[in-house]
Design goal:
By secondary structure, this protein is mainly α. The protein has one domain. Helices cover about 85% and strands about 0% of the residues. The protein is built from three helices and no strands. The protein starts with a helix and ends with a helix.
Amino acid sequence: MTLAAWKKGIQRVCAPRLRFLMQAPLPRSYGNYLGRKLFHFLLTVQGVGAFALITLGVILTKLRIARGVNLSAIRHELARFPV
């Protein structure tokens, strides 16, 4: 028996079981685990984004550009949401 024939025989026997496993929903514990990992990833992305914005602000401050950028951004936000 060749390797290809052996694999075909295994696939015929296991195919219905594999199809059932692929259609079955994940257990709650796996769903909770994946959800926690997703939220952890999003929090990490948020932290990296905040770090990037702070770094950009420092760089712009060092280049004496930040004053004009920040003032225009503040004016824009105050126009959108008056205090």
